[in-house]
């Protein structure tokens, strides 16, 4: 049993069972919100003083006391007490012990229901901006690789089969676009995170003369929430954020899969730096791509956190229910996992090298990767596309029978399939000819890739 009466325990005749305290406490994970809790409490105290609900002297003592508590927590000297349940009660009790009755006035016109909503929003606002910066770092790594290998070719794949030649830079900029969408989702989500909940109290608002707009200005919220019941019950912003993070982790997982394949002896497209690989405990020759594999594996927990949050909310009635305490651990785990994955991926990419000679050989030899270019050539000669497709298919079948590639065929051989083919065909059958013919917007032609690369560098502040 706890020896001290709870701050909410006025109507209770028995002390809380120790087993209940242990089961219901959240301080072991929500202590990370202490900065946000203190910032919200300072703004609330200033508003209470502004409205005459506490004195200016009491407000000053509250703010000084909260500053001291924040310094103690940051220094690691503050003792968190599980019997006080959460970060709010731990700080409020320490404040009351430190400054007396003035500290007990801080909770005027607020509930832990709107208080935790505020703390979470403040924390997620900060973390969203941090992750956006981390996404930019990953984008910069891709753009750096695109600039380094500008003009170098590699096989492009569909169905994991060689399809058409592309520039390495084009492939790298594909990921720049992918992670750019992740940034857009987080920025858009900030609109719904950045809404002040404080002042809605337990579920119905408060009868005391508070000024929510004052608090919103203090905490830099552009909006205040419009409905007290919805505000207290709302965790949509957490689910939306975790959905955006799940998408980030899935993108990292797709990238990781390519890196695992590309670094294998079968592909040997890239060399991952030794500092980002590990060895085998039994096979001394091994160099394992553990970092991409771990990132790929961690996508499961991030997606699982999202599913857990959706399940948490699906049966909850209005307004606050204690179930909502269970939103923090999946949120925090998602944040920690995504931030760690982005940080290590940015490092790995900067230290990755492409085997350009091998990629060029693979692109030029085998796979009939310029077959579509031959079909396009025929279309430009006024052959209907479906006929052109059939002609090229027959040509490829002949090449397979003769153990040749398309560029190996003579003009006479090519003309047996269509007399519209002339000697200008060989320009489009070359790898560089194929690549540079893709001049459509967003294509892999060098001209288009140079334009896209410059735009990406400018967007990321990498050039003046």
Structural notes for this entry:
By secondary structure, the chain is mainly alpha-helical. It has three domains: about 20-110, Fumarase/aspartase (N-terminal domain) (Fumarase C, Chain B, domain 1, Orthogonal Bundle), CATH 1.10.275.10; about 115-355, Fumarase C, Chain A, domain 2 (Up-down Bundle), CATH 1.20.200.10; about 360-460, Fumarase/aspartase (C-terminal domain) (Ribonucleotide Reductase Protein R1, domain 1). The chain is built from 20 helices and six strands. The protein has helices at about 20-25, 25-30, 35-50, 55-75, 85-100, 100-105, 110-150, 170-195, 210-220, 230-235, 235-260, 290-315, 330-350, 355-365, 370-380, 385-400, 410-415, 425-430, 430-435, 445-460, and strands spanning about 155-160, 160-165, 195, 225, 270, 350-355. The strands form three sheets. The protein has a two-stranded antiparallel ribbon. A two-stranded parallel ribbon has the order 3-4. A two-stranded antiparallel sheet has the order 5-6. α3 packs across α7 and α11 (about 235-260) runs antiparallel to α12 (about 290-315). The N and C termini lie far apart (about 65 Å).
């Amino acid at each position: 049993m706890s020896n001290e009466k709870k701050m909410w325990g006025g109507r209770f005749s028995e002390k809380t069972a120790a087993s209940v305290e242990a089961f219901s406490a959240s301080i072991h994970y929500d202590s990370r919100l202490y900065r946000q809790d203190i910032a919200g409490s300072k703004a609330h105290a200033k508003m209470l003083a502004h409205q005459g609900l506490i004195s200016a002297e009491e407000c000053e003592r509250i703010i000084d006391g909260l500053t001291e508590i924040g310094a103690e927590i940051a220094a690691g000297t503050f003792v968190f007490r599980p019997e006080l349940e959460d970060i709010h009660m731990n700080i409020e009790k320490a404040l009351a012990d430190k400054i007396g009755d003035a500290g007990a006035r801080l909770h005027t016109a607020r509930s832990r229901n709107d208080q935790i909503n505020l703390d979470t929003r403040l924390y997620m606002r900060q973390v969203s901006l941090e992750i956006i910066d981390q996404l930019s770092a990953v984008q910069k790594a891709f753009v750096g690789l695109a600039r380094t290998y500008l003009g170098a070719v590699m096989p492009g794949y569909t169905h994991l089969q060689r399809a058409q030649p592309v520039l390495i830079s084009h492939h790298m900029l594909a990921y720049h676009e992918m992670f750019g969408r992740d940034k857009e989702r987080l920025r858009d989500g900030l609109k719904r995170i950045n809404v002040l909940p404080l002042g809605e109290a337990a579920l119905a608002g408060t009868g005391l003369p508070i000024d929510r707009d004052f608090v919103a200005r203090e905490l830099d919220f552009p909006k205040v929430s419009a409905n007290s019941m919805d505000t207290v019950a709302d965790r949509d912003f957490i689910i939306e954020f975790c959905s955006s993070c799940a998408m980030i982790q899935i993108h990292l997982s797709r990238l990781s899969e390519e890196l695992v394949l590309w670094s294998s002896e079968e592909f040997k497209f890239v060399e991952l730096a030794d500092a980002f690989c590990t060895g085998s405990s039994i096979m001394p020759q091994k160099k394992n791509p553990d970092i991409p594999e771990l990132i790929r594996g961690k996508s499961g927990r991030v997606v699982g956190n999202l599913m857990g949050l959706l399940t948490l909310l699906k049966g909850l009635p209005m307004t606050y229910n204690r179930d909502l305490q269970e939103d923090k651990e999946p949120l925090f785990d998602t944040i920690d996992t995504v931030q760690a994955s982005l940080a290590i991926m940015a490092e790995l990419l900067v230290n990755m090298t492409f085997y350009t000679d091998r990629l060029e050989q693979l692109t030029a030899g085998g796979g009939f990767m310029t077959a579509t270019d031959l079909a396009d050539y025929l279309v430009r000669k006024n052959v209907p596309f479906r006929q052109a497709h059939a002609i090229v298919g027959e040509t490829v079948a002949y090449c397979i029978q003769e153990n040749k590639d398309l560029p190996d065929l003579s003009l006479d051989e090519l003309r047996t399939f269509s007399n519209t083919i002339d000697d200008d065909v060989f320009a489009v059958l070359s790898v560089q000819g194929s690549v540079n013919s893709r001049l459509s917007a967003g294509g892999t032609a060098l001209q288009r890739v140079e334009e896209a690369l410059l735009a990406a560098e400018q967007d990321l502040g990498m050039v003046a």
